[in-house]
């Protein structure tokens, strides 16, 4: 059946115009500029630009600092996704078990969603600040040389903790919804077949949660790639050294701080390719889920 | 509830679940609780760890000092200005996005016009161009349009959202054909149909989206960082970050903690108070 | 109140024509039912009258005005939809009054009209309820009420009863008929249910594959179906249509299975002896008889459906005949599959059709 519509011809253009205009001015035009800029090189004074083809890309991809950023991003994304999803899943399973108090737990567990990533980073920095952080204090008492501002591994641990903490809310809500969508009859059938609670979880519940987990994996990946810029910028500034310099942080830093326009543009284009890949991946997967569902 | 008991947790299992959940809630809430407690202690107490875990006696004094210009002395901008900026940005983004997304989704679903699907894809593809991947060129456009240090500059580039448009499109497509036809037979044109029928039916979707977008606007970081040079135009998140980065021994940390609480509280309240719509909106829109 | 007329109305989607030139004249106050199988184009035709679909060619007039290019709201029509299409967020009263509100009627006048319509439809106690708090039958009545308050030139009904259960459907059918007679508004009613069509219609339009096969009163269509499609569609169970041949004398037909049946009337010149034809006999136009009675022939029964008062015997003219035949018999008759019954067809109720075109001879 066709969609019923109004016969107007001009009105829809007026309705769509604002979004179209903003998309063109602030999305398409800059994206084209980035593509163009990525093939140019500017001299040190910004007086002369020359077309250099793919040279910027070659240079970026051969740059040890860029390869380091890729590595940092991968480690950071995987650990952040893993911790936030694992904790959220554990809590969601517990929340399914209780009869009373679900609402209360949910109310508390969604707080971090409303906290800006940058502020999440600052909160963790307050707590683990080497000079007066209350949680750094016991570490020091135990004789650990705690200083995330000087120790790269500790810095990485701190930003991963902050980033995971913030994402627990989101993952928790989705896992709760995913768990509720599992038909009770399946679990009952497994119980009648003699499966104990632990076995029921790993053989029935966990596999049936796969679509939710898979979806969250993509979302958490995108989150760790892009939305965590605030955490890095506010807590470590990419340091110490370049221990926490992620790809997005590097684009910003090279473009705005170091003013390497061509390189920054090439990095932007690479990031664009990553997002397009992730989005395509996500939509193919969602499409498949529709078929099954 | 016999069958529930059979596959549900045993009594001891439920108690264990409560314990784990309480532990989880404490861990998750702790950073926020910590800063809230810190904001009620004197500077001396804060600088001498460990911090007591119960609120201190300086609450009134700290907040009074902070609101009466204390924050302005650190960051150069008064806290009410910061909160005003952030509120304008968050509301502007939320309301603006809802309006332009609804309008474009309305056009795409309820009208037939040449290039309709091309327009849909043009909007859809912006999903793949987050601001993070086009930082510099977008900044240049802002400079050319003289939008640096303006509210328009803070809001406009963030209100075109494929996500919200897709959500409304999806919802509009569930409206039965006959409802539109009945309205047309009743004499309703596009505007009346939108106002009298579509808008009331979209109310819960709008509420859900409003919460999500308000949070999105309030927690923006990279974009405000780029397009504001003047402290006067800072959002509270940016201002807080500036207070910390210039931190030295003389930093009045008790006032910084108050600022952090003020930056966290409004969006947390919105999420908690509008929880029903927020959860529904989040889980349903992203699927 | 007004007349409604369609002149050679056509509809194409791209290059495919789905309505092949339909012409109808509906008189003032007349109740016309369009009936046909699903996909025959009956709903499309109705929606074109409503202005919800554009017509590709032809003329539609309501009350003497050409409405081809008018918006639905300018056509002065009201429509009752299959799914009722009630506005879920409005009360019953608001649903019924919405059209009047758009037309700019003052509130008091609106309320009065809504109240009067609600009274006719027994909806007074429900005026402040939302549609979701109503039963299917009540929703259907609200949809009727919404059409009624408008006092339009014409009512358009698009399968309004198909979502109700059987008992309610009979009730509502009667109520619609009575209501239409009381208010006397010209009505066009689309359905796929031939019982609904027969009982409601002043005149009936039988549609098939985008063509109006026959337009006439229900009984005229029952008595003299224009072609095999109409013959098979109207009447339940469907008319038996059997291949046959005119006898040598030209005063009877010989069925493929053997028996000869005499014809009452003089045949047209074109139907000469030896011509092959299709013979139509309705199941209800047989009389049971004893073996060997004049004009009777045996039917070998292979299945029986008993309904109570009646039973339908499914049988064949010979044990090996390809075509099955349905005969209505009294319900109490003791029939056994495999045994023959003897029947005499009602000679005045025979129908002859041209085998190639299916047209009535």
TrEMBL record, chain A:
Localization of this protein: Cell inner membrane; Cell membrane
Superkingdom, natural source: Bacteria
SUPFAM superfamilies on file: MetI-like (SSF161098)
Chief location bin: membrane
Record has Transferase as a keyword: no
Domain ABC transmembrane type-1 positions: 70-282
Membrane-spanning intervals of the chain: 12-31, 69-92, 104-127, 155-180, 201-226, 265-286
Gene Ontology process terms (BP): transmembrane transport
InterPro entries per the UniProt record, alphabetical: MetI-like, MetI-like_sf, UgpAE/MalFG_permease
Pfam families: BPD_transp_1
Family: Belongs to the binding-protein-dependent transport system permease family.
Chain's role: Part of the ABC transporter complex UgpBAEC involved in sn-glycerol-3-phosphate (G3P) import. Probably responsible for the translocation of the substrate across the membrane.
Oligomeric and partner information: The complex is composed of two ATP-binding proteins (UgpC), two transmembrane proteins (UgpA and UgpE) and a solute-binding protein (UgpB).
Name this protein carries in UniProt: sn-glycerol-3-phosphate transport system permease protein UgpA
Organism of origin: Albidovulum denitrificans
TrEMBL record, chain B:
Residues annotated as transmembrane: 15-36, 88-111, 118-136, 148-168, 197-218, 253-274
Keyword DNA damage appears in the UniProt entry: no
PROSITE patterns according to UniProt: ABC_TM1
GO cellular component, one term: plasma membrane
Gene3D superfamilies: MetI-like
SUPFAM superfamilies recorded: MetI-like
Membrane topology reported for the UniProt record: Multi-pass membrane protein
Subunit structure: The complex is composed of two ATP-binding proteins (UgpC), two transmembrane proteins (UgpA and UgpE) and a solute-binding protein (UgpB).
Its biological purpose: Part of the ABC transporter complex UgpBAEC involved in sn-glycerol-3-phosphate (G3P) import. Probably responsible for the translocation of the substrate across the membrane.
Protein's UniProt name: sn-glycerol-3-phosphate transport system permease protein UgpE
Species annotation: Albidovulum denitrificans
Organism classification: Bacteria, Pseudomonadati, Pseudomonadota, Alphaproteobacteria, Rhodobacterales
Automatic annotation (TrEMBL), chain C:
InterPro entries reported in the protein's UniProt record: AAA+_ATPase, ABC_transporter-like_ATP-bd, ABC_transporter-like_CS, ABC_transpr_MalK-like, ABC_transpr_MalK/UgpC-like, Mo/tungstate-bd_C_term_dom, NA-bd_OB-fold, OB_MalK-like
Domain of life: Bacteria
Coiled-coil intervals, chain numbering: none
GO biological process, one term: glycerophosphodiester transmembrane transport
Segments forming domain ABC transporter: 4-234
Keyword ATP-binding: yes
GO cellular component, one term: ATP-binding cassette (ABC) transporter complex, substrate-binding subunit-containing
NCBIfam families: PRK11650.1
Protein name in UniProt: sn-glycerol 3-phosphate transport system ATP-binding protein
Originating species: Albidovulum denitrificans
């Amino acid at each position: 059946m066709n969609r019923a519509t109004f016969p107007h011809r001009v009105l829809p253009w007026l309705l769509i115009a604002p979004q179209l205009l903003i998309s063109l001015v602030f999305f398409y035009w800059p994206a084209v500029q980035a593509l163009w800029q990525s093939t140019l090189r500017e001299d040190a004074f910004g007086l002369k630009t020359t077309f250099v083809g793919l040279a910027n890309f070659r240079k970026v991809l051969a740059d040890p600092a860029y390869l380091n950023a890729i590595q940092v991003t991968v480690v950071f994304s995987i650990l952040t996704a893993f911790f936030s999803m694992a904790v959220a899943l554990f809590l969601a399973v517990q929340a399914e078990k209780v009869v009373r108090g679900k609402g209360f737990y949910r109310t508390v567990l969604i707080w971090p969603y409303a906290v800006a990533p940058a502020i999440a980073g600052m909160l963790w920095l307050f707590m683990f600040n080497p000079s007066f952080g209350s949680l750094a204090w016991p570490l020091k008492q135990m004789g650990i040389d705690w200083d995330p501002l000087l120790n790269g591994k500790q810095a990485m641990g701190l930003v991963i903790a902050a980033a995971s903490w913030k994402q627990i809310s989101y993952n928790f809500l989705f896992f709760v919804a995913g768990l509720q969508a599992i038909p009770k009859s399946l679990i009952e059938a497994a119980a009648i077949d003699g499966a104990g609670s632990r076995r029921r979880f790993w053989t029935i519940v966990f596999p049936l949660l796969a679509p939710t987990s898979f979806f969250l994996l993509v979302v958490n990946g995108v989150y760790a790639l892009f939305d965590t810029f605030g955490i890095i910028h506010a807590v470590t500034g990419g340091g110490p050294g370049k221990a926490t310099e992620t790809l997005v942080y590097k684009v910003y830093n090279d473009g705005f701080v170091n003013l390497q326009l061509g390189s920054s543009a090439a990095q932007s284009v690479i990031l664009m390719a990553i997002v397009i890949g992730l989005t395509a991946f996500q939509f193919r997967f969602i499409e498949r889920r529709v078929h099954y569902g | 509830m016999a069958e529930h008991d059979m596959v549900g947790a045993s009594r001891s299992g439920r108690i264990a679940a409560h314990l784990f959940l309480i532990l989880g809630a404490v861990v998750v809430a702790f950073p926020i609780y910590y800063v809230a407690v810190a904001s009620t202690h004197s500077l001396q107490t804060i600088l001498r760890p460990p911090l007591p875990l119960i609120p201190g006696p300086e609450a009134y004094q700290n907040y009074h000092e902070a609101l009466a210009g204390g924050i302005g002395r650190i960051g150069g901008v008064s806290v009410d200005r910061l909160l005003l900026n952030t509120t304008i940005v968050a509301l502007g983004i939320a309301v603006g996005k809802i309006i332009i997304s609804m309008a474009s989704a309305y056009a795409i679903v309820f009208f037939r016009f040449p290039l309709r699907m091309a327009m849909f894809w043009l909007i859809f593809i912006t999903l793949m161009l987050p601001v993070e991947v086009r930082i510099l060129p977008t900044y240049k456009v802002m400079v050319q349009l003289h939008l640096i240090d303006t509210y328009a500059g803070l809001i406009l580039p963030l209100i075109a959202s494929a996500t919200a448009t897709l959500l409304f499109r999806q919802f509009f497509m569930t409206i039965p054909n006959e409802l539109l036809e009945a309205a047309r037979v009743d004499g309703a044109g596009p505007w009346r149909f939108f106002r009298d029928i579509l808008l009331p039916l979209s109310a819960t979707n709008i509420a859900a989206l409003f919460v999500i977008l308000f949070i999105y606007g309030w927690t923006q970081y990279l974009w405000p960082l780029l397009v504001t040079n003047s402290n006067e135009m800072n959002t509270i998140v940016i201002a807080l970050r500036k207070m910390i980065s210039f931190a030295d021994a003389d930093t009045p940390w008790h006032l910084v903690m108050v600022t952090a609480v003020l930056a966290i509280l409004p969006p947390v309240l919105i999420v908690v108070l509008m929880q029903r719509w927020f959860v529904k909106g989040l889980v349903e829109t992203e699927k | 109140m007004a007349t409604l007329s369609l002149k050679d109305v056509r509809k194409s989607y791209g290059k495919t024509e789905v309505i092949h030139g339909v012409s109808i004249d509906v008189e003032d106050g007349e109740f016309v039912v369009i009936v046909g199988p699903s996909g025959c184009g009956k709903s499309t035709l109705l929606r074109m009258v409503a202005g919800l679909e554009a017509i590709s060619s032809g003329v539609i007039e309501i009350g003497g005005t050409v409405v081809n290019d008018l918006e639905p709201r300018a056509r002065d029509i009201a429509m009752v939809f299959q799914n009722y299409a009630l506005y879920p967020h409005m009360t019953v009263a608001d649903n019924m009054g919405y059209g009047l509100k758009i037309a700019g009627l003052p509130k008091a006048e609106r309320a009065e009209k809504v109240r009067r319509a609600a009274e006719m439809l027994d909806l007074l106690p429900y005026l402040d309820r939302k549609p979701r708090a109503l039963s299917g039958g009540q929703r259907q009545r609200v949809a009727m009420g919404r059409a009624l308050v408008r006092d339009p030139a014409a009512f358009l009904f698009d399968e309004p009863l198909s979502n109700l259960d059987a008992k309610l459907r009979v009730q509502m059918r009667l109520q619609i008929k009575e209501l239409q007679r009381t208010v006397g508004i010209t009505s066009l009613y689309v359905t796929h249910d031939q019982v609904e069509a027969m009982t409601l219609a002043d005149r009936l339009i039988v549609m098939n594959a985008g063509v109006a096969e026959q337009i006439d009163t229900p009984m005229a269509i029952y008595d003299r179906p224009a072609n095999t499609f109409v013959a098979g569609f109207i009447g339940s169970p469907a008319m038996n249509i059997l291949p046959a041949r005119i006898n040598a004398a030209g005063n009877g037909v010989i069925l493929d299975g053997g028996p000869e049946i005499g014809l009452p009337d003089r045949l047209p010149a074109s139907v000469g002896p030896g011509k092959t034809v299709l013979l139509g006999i309705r199941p209800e136009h047989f009389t049971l008889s004893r073996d060997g009675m004049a004009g009777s022939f045996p039917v070998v029964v292979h299945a029986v459906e008993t309904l109570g008062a009646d039973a339908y015997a499914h049988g064949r003219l010979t044990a090996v005949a390809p075509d099955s035949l349905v005969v209505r018999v009294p319900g109490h008759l003791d029939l056994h599959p495999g045994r023959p019954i003897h029947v005499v067809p009602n000679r005045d109720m025979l129908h002859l059709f041209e085998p190639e075109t299916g047209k009535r001879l």
